Amino acid sequence: MDIGVIGCANIAMRSVIPAIKSISDFNLLAVASRSFEKANEYARKFECEAIEGYDNLIAREDIEAVYIPLPTGMHQEFVVKALQSGKHVIAEKSLGMNFSEVETMVNLAREKNLLLMENYMFEYHSQHKFVFDLINNNEIGELRLFRSTFGFPPLPKNNFRYDKKLGGGSLLDAAGYPIKAAQIFLGNNITVKASNLFIDKSLDVDIFGSAYLSGNSSIAAEIGFGFDNFYQCSYELWGSKGKITAERAFTPQPTFSPKIILEKDNDKKEFLIEPDNHFVNILKEFYRAATQRDFERHYTALLNQAKLQEEIRLLSTKNFIN
Ligand SMILES: NC(=O)c1ccc[n+]([C@@H]2O[C@H](COP(=O)([O-])OP(=O)(O)OC[C@H]3O[C@@H](n4cnc5c(N)ncnc54)[C@H](OP(=O)(O)O)[C@@H]3O)[C@@H](O)[C@H]2O)c1
Predict the structure, then answer these.
(1) Is the separation of the CB atoms in 105 and 79 below 8 Å?
(2) Same structural domain for residues 197 and 215?
(3) Whole-prediction pTM value?
(4) Is the dihedral of CA 92, 183, 282, 259 positive or negative?
(5) How far apart are CA 188 and CA 180, in angstroms?
(6) Model confidence pLDDT, tens digit, residues 29-43
(7) Which domain holds residue 90?
(8) Does the CB atom of residue 123 touch ligand 1 within 6 A?
(9) CA spacing 20 to 30 A to 218: which of 23, 130, 181, 194?
(10) What separation in Å is there between the alpha carbon of 114 and the centre of ligand 1?
(11) What is the three-class DSSP state of 298?
(12) Side-chain-side CA neighbours of residue 32 (13 Å)
């Protein structure tokens, strides 16, 4: 599949383009940037064509799919243009600024019969299958609560995550991971019951927050997220007989062995999971779903994720800071 990259982002250089290059089903044709110099720097490094201007890459008829690692606030414009020009799309998270944007993009993908996915790569790491096996082997008894946190210390002031117009804020960024993880373990029938966002008054951007999600009579999830937090990147499944903790749930590097901890019967076991490359795994799923035209499950995942993010925003008690 001939693929192009729209925006020479850090995440593209560090993780996604190397993953694309490692999969023989993909042929990286071109990278586009606002500046030719930057496109050229990436193109030389990754042995492909450099294109100045995102629209010029989208206009290329020989490109069948695009990866879009632009700030969230720019996704809708370029996702819509790419779908209109007949390309499958994998965009960075969060796909849209709100539910309505995501719904518009999903409706267009469906109308054009094209794949649209969001790059929540962590879901495709083998450590979660290991956790599911522990649960299915009844190691922790019945599930009582899911807890997950993703947050990190402040970013440089000029980072787009502090810019409201570009889709800034922790809800559209760090929160996406525990929200996705809650659905993986509790299913899709959950809604947000309570939430709290702490908003920087001068930036009008949420810096940290938390939420409580559950179905009508199902097990609940407590999640926390933020940009002004002690680093956390984990989830816990607390059961009637034990507890499982994934210590590096969302960001294990391809050479890193994440640790899964099982506590039960006054005992604590630690399992080191084989390194895995979730960026490669999600791209393989993108290729599979595109070539087998297996789109609906990905549209549903996009809508469910955006719905929960929207509910957190709408239900939130707004607390102003600074
Ligand atoms: N899945 C993951 O593991 C993961 C990890 C980190 C980030 N992300 C997501 O990936 C996306 C990019 O994040 P990043 O940290 O890689 O950011 P980044 O390095 O700042 O890249 C964003 C790119 O967007 C383009 N851009 C166009 N207009 C821009 C503007 N006004 N301000 C900033 N950039 C602009 C730039 O490309 P040109 O200069 O080439 O035009 C820039 O390199 C975000 O949606 C983020 O949520 C995902």
Answers:
(1) yes
(2) yes
(3) 0.97
(4) positive
(5) 10
(6) 999 999 999 999 999
(7) 2-121
(8) no
(9) 130
(10) 24
(11) helix
(12) 21
